[in-house]
């Protein structure tokens, strides 16, 4: 009576308590997360579907993580969302959950939670924005900002022009419409089998976004009835599919960290090396910014993710089970492609196999680092240069415009203490802009090395996720300005040309930075966060505990 009576205050009729599945709709809606600001409307469509199929829908908030406003970085809070959502899924009397996400961290955060609880679950991402339109041309969110920032610094654009362009770039609901992290993770959710076919690509304002949400509401009731849970969908085979799809779409390097973290929750064996090995024979098929030309709206009209997966054919495990209750192969078998400029064929790919995310190792990154080859400059993939070292992005920004900065196009910019423990939270700062004096000379790319991340919308020859990070005592902490560094992407190596004896001497002089916080979430995070090479989850959150609660105290 307690449970029912209190719920009746919302005006439900008594039949909702007749034993039908109770479906939680976890929404990361917030006006502080603009990419997710329409999710309360998406939730209404999900509810329609749940009612239609004989379920009882209840919407509730989960922490919204907006990439653009949160300080110091939304990544600091991905694990907090995952922890909050996990506890909400388990503590409430739910039979299944619909996960509403959009902006970068909300998709992996909710998938991590669903994996640890293992209740039947389906994801509905909020969809990308419509293409930006500025001065008669398409502009991509994020990607255009990096270019405008450089144009502003080099005097090619005024502040007034920038202010106008901002509005042109963000002209509808939705997440970034480049193949940035949000679009990548939406695609990963679909490739893993956790969201409905085509769901990653319908634009946020397209009526089919709401149609797919309503359909997901129907499907979650079926998933509860058939007890198909995330651990049966997100298997090792599903992760292998996701890694290959990520290579084919030219996806964000952030997918590496997030997939490792989700797999860790499920006990699926996955490591950094898998990303290189599995992607090695996968060409880039999708011509989307930042690696290519088009945007998510074009990708949708060209046939969306099913068309890409159909093209990959036998490279995928087509027998993998998905939330449709059918196999991946059944879902995509008739998927048409309508535009070969946007979705290339396997025999005429956009970029050849082996140009996706590469994993580098060497004495500068003993546990690995990654580089997005498709966003890098071909002439820099093998490069030897002198290090110019900064202990924070802010220290670099303080001198970026200095005409006397001791740097040329061969210099290797090292920006460190940006890892999970270091900043903290591993921000997307690795693609620092080039020194102003080099931009004015027309230099458009340099090798940059960092233990932080790079936005999925960004480009450049940037070595990321160096592990162990500087703040954890990784060799990156020992580099000094003037040291020679060799990057050899074809050989997958990153080497610091300093003898071990000298590195030992430097290590003896090195002291870890003081902890960034003495209490609260940041204290807990920095004490327990794992390195990027393991997914940057908190050590005590790895794995799962199912959805049974030990004791109902009420
Ligand atoms: Fe939210 Fe890019 S800022 S998806």
How is the secondary structure organized here?
Layout: H1 2-8, E1 22-27, H2 39-52, E2 56-61, H3 78-91, E3 96-101, H4 106-117, E4 121-125, E5 132-134, E6 137-139, H5 143-153, H6 159-169, H7 181-191, H8 207-226, H9 230-233, H10 236-249, H11 254-266, H12 272-279, H13 296-302, H14 304-312, H15 328-332, E7 357-362, E8 365-372, E9 382-390, H16 393-397, E10 412-415, H17 436-440, E11 447-450, E12 462-467, E13 484-488, E14 493-496, H18 500-509, H19 520-528
Parallel strand pairs: 1-2, 1-3, 3-4, 9-10, 10-11, 11-12
Antiparallel strand pairs: 5-6, 7-8, 8-12, 9-13, 13-14
Bound molecules: FE2/S2 (inorganic) cluster (FES).
Describe the structure.
The chain has helices at residues 2-8, 39-52, 78-91, 106-117, 143-153, 159-169, 181-191, 207-226, 230-233, 236-249, 254-266, 272-279, 296-302, 304-312, 328-332, 393-397, 436-440, 500-509, 520-528, and strands at residues 22-27, 56-61, 96-101, 121-125, 132-134, 137-139, 357-362, 365-372, 382-390, 412-415, 447-450, 462-467, 484-488, 493-496. The protein is an alpha/beta fold and 554 residues long. An 8-stranded mixed β-sheet has the order 7-8-12-11-10-9-13-14. A 4-stranded parallel β-sheet has the order 2-1-3-4, sandwiched between helices. A two-stranded antiparallel ribbon has the order 5-6. The chain starts with a helix and ends in a 26-residue tail after the last helix. The relative contact order is 0.11. The model has no long low-confidence stretch (mean pLDDT 95). The structure holds FE2/S2 (inorganic) cluster. FE2/S2 (inorganic) cluster binds at residues 35, 67-68, 103-104, 142, 175-176, 180, 182.
């Amino acid at each position: 009576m307690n449970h029912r009576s209190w719920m009746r205050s919302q005006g439900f009729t008594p039949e909702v308590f007749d034993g039908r599945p109770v479906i939680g709709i976890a929404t990361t809606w917030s006006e502080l997360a603009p990419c997710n600001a329409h999710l309360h409307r998406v939730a209404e469509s999900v509810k329609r579907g749940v009612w239609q199929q004989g379920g009882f829908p209840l919407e509730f908030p989960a922490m919204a993580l907006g990439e653009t406003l949160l300080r110091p970085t939304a990544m600091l809070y991905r694990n907090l969302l995952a922890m909050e959502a996990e506890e909400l899924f388990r503590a409430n009397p739910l039979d299944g959950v619909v996960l509403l996400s959009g902006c970068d961290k909300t998709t992996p955060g909710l998938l991590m939670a669903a994996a640890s609880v293992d209740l039947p679950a389906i994801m509905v991402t909020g969809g990308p924005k419509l293409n930006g339109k500025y001065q008669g041309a398409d502009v991509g969110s994020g990607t255009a900002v990096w270019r405008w920032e450089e144009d502003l610094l080099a005097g090619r654009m005024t502040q007034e022009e920038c202010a106008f362009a901002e509005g042109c770039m963000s002209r509808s609901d939705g997440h970034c419409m480049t193949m940035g992290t949000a679009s990548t993770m939406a695609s990963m959710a679909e490739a893993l089998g956790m969201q409905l076919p085509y769901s990653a690509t319908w634009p946020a304002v397209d009526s089919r976004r709401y149609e797919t949400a309503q359909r997901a509401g129907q499907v979650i009731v079926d998933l509860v009835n058939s007890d198909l849970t995330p651990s049966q969908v997100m298997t090792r085979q599903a992760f292998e599919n996701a890694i290959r799809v990520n290579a084919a779409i030219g996806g964000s390097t952030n997918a590496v960290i997030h997939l490792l973290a989700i797999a860790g929750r499920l006990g699926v064996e996955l490591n950094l090396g898998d990303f290189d090995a599995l992607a090695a024979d996968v060409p880039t098929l999708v011509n989307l910014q930042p690696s290519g030309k088009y945007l998510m709206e074009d990708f949708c009209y060209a046939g969306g993710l099913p068309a890409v997966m159909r093209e990959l054919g036998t490279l995928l495990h087509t027998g993998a089970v998905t939330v449709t209750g059918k196999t991946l192969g059944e879902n995509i078998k008739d998927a048409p492609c309508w535009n070969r400029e946007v979705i290339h064929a396997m025999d005429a790919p956009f970029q050849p196999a082996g140009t996706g995310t590469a994993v580098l190792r060497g004495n500068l990154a003993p546990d690995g680092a990654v580089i997005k080859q498709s966003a890098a400059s071909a002439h820099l993939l093998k490069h030897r240069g002198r290090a110019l070292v900064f202990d924070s992005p802010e220290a670099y920004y303080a001198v970026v415009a200095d005409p006397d900065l001791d740097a040329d196009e061969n210099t290797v910019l090292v920006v460190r203490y940006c890892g999970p423990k270091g900043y903290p939270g591993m921000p997307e700062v690795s693609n620092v802009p080039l020194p102003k004096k080099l931009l004015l000379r027309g230099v458009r790319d340099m090798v940059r090395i960092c233990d932080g991340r790079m936005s999925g919308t960004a480009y450049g020859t940037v070595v990321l996720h160096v592990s162990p990070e500087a703040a954890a005592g990784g060799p990156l902490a020992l580099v000094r300005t003037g040291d020679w560094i060799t990057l050899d992407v074809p050989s997958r190596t990153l080497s610091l040309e300093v003898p071990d004896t000298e590195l030992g001497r430097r290590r003896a002089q090195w002291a870890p930075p003081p902890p960034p916080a003495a209490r609260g979430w940041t204290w807990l995070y920095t004490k327990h966060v794992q390195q990027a090479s393991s997914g940057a989850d908190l050590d005590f959150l790895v794995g799962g505990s199912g959805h049974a609660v030990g004791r109902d105290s009420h």
